Amino acid sequence: MKKHSLSVMLITKNEEDRVERCLMSVTDIADEIIVLDSGSTDNTLAICQKYTDKVTVTDWPGFGKQKQRALEQTSGDWVLSIDADEALDETMRNALIALLSQEEIKESAFCLPWGVTLYGKTLKHGRSARAVLRLFKRDGARYTLDEVHETVIPAAGNIGKLKGLLLHYTHRDYGHGLNKAAQYAWLGSQKYFRKGKKSHGLTLALLRGVWTFFHIYFLRRGFLDGSVGFIVAMTYAQVSFNKYVGLWLLENNR
């Protein structure tokens, strides 16, 4: 029997092909599901409304501000922040149920191991082999207001790790992956420019891209994920290069 209530929050836009898988993985665990949609033109809203009546259509202020808005609508003891292209696997679902059934939870937040799934393969190495902080006590938590790569800052306390995988179906296809990478690179450029970070020129932008590939493919053993691991390492390298090129162009007002 659950001892702690759980709010699940997600932000959406045109996710009709993926959001139901996400919602199905949490619907019987959540005490409430909060959805903030930024103008879907497909069936995303209708699908979400099958699982919750707490669906709000709003503008798009950036990832950090939008997630902070969603967080402010939650009321549970704990909050699970999940993306529309993600889903809990059965092991993680059971681990979450067991956690919420404890009399006292000593941790203030939990990281969830990512199961990035691309082109039919769940990656186990490279940058994908990490755990993301997505489960946290609501009281005292807040999001950074960054345009992209926002971070939740939980209340003070120990951070644990939940068993299982947070499956992440990040790309619909290669074209979608290219578009997403370009969007994230440009948002990263603007974020760094706003924060006063310097590019230090195009040569360093190139070196950063090379280093990113080396770090992901060799140091973090992305090569063990085969051809998909190579594609992922190259994609991250391109994002890094493009992000600093964009920053350089912003610095020079070109």
UniProtKB/TrEMBL annotation:
The keyword Membrane applies. Residues 7-103 form the Glycosyltransferase 2-like domain. InterPro entries: Glyco_trans_2-like, Nucleotide-diphossugar_trans. Keywords: Membrane, Transferase, Transmembrane, Transmembrane helix. The chain crosses the membrane at residues 201-218, 230-250. The keyword Iron does not apply. Gene3D superfamilies: Spore Coat Polysaccharide Biosynthesis Protein SpsA, Chain A. One of its GO terms (molecular function) is transferase activity. It holds the Pfam family Glycos_transf_2. Belongs to the glycosyltransferase 2 family. WaaE/KdtX subfamily. This is Glycosyl transferase.
